[in-house]
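Quick illustration for those who missed Monday's session on complexes.
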Amino acid sequence: MADLPTHIIPAATLRSFVAAIFGKAGCDAKEAAEIGLHLVSANLTGHDSHGVIRIPRYIEDIQTGRTLVGQTVAILGESATHAVLDGKYGFGQHVGPQAVAIGVAKAKQSGLSVIALRRSAHIGRIGGWAEMAADAGLISIHFVNVDNYPMVAPFGGVARRFSTNPVTIGAPPMAGRAMLLLDMATSVVAEGKVMVASNGGKPVPEGALITPEGRLTTDPETLYGPLVPNGPRNSFFGKGSLRAFGEHKGSGLAFMCEILAGVLTGGYTSGPLHHDGRQISNGMLSIYLDPLHFGCEDFVRKTMEYVDYVKTSPTAEGCDEVLYPGEPEARHRAVREREGIPLQVDTWTNLCNIAKGYDLPIPA
Ligand code: NAD
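Prediction with nicotinamide-adenine-dinucleotide bound:
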């Protein structure tokens, strides 16, 4: 399959451009910079599905009032070790860091904390929140769901019952190595990858999708309905579903994300019940752990030793090397920081059109 044409742009230029767009869209300078930082960080780490490709939708969400600018999380309840927060449909890139900061402060004080965040607008790449906690020396675990936006069939079923519910676990940085960071959707692939396949990009793997008749397929029309070349992709038009990874085990994990991030946070699940009609806000239940409070002063050293041990495994057929979770992201970041971020031409064109609408200059 030929590579799609790309436009290459330095990360710093893209961050400023994104911040300028959101400044014009109504965000103050801090919030606009946070959106630029986190979207570009998703592109840098290779998760383009959660990067600047989202901007047209984010702008539309401001215009329709689905996402509200300038929100401060409301603390609905708290103790030394927990807090229940309402994101009030503020930008995930703005209320997300507020929630992490509260969790980090409590865990530094008490050794651990649990933060239940409900009603955040799209909270993006979850690995970014684990990185923030890691920079403070903490382990963090995040369970995330999306309200009223089912796309994934439960094991044994064909109808949409879960969203792509990510689970993320991060550990404090290891000097000279990539951060240990498991950051994954519980679907075989994130929806963005089906979108890329539908535009002629890399096909999704076998078993990623299931038809209403229960047949496994790789056909993006299962999710989007009949495809118009370069037309909009709306998952409401497809009749089939994505599948959870790992058969009954991944399906079970996706299920529990709905319960922890959707029910326990006081937010909403992917089901038709309990939501307030807005749709596609994220719930996130996060657990923060300070290894020092567990008497584990040598947590990082022991983790590094174990990482090195795992990597000494002889490789399987077709694999050159054993990677650990977080290594692919770190490698992408190193290359893209150096060489610039490749954006599909239609993604870049969309950003330029939005900028022109705001009379913003297009970066060279
Ligand atoms: P992925 O499949 O690319 O990677 C998943 C994990 O596997 C990562 O930790 C990665 O480091 C690791 N990994 C990848 N290749 C590996 C290899 N060869 N060896 C060892 N480890 C390897 O990620 P994904 O599941 O497509 O998720 C993409 C992003 O989407 C994540 O950042 C996630 O947080 C985000 N997401 C967000 C939402 C939301 O609602 N906000 C929903 C779903 C996904």
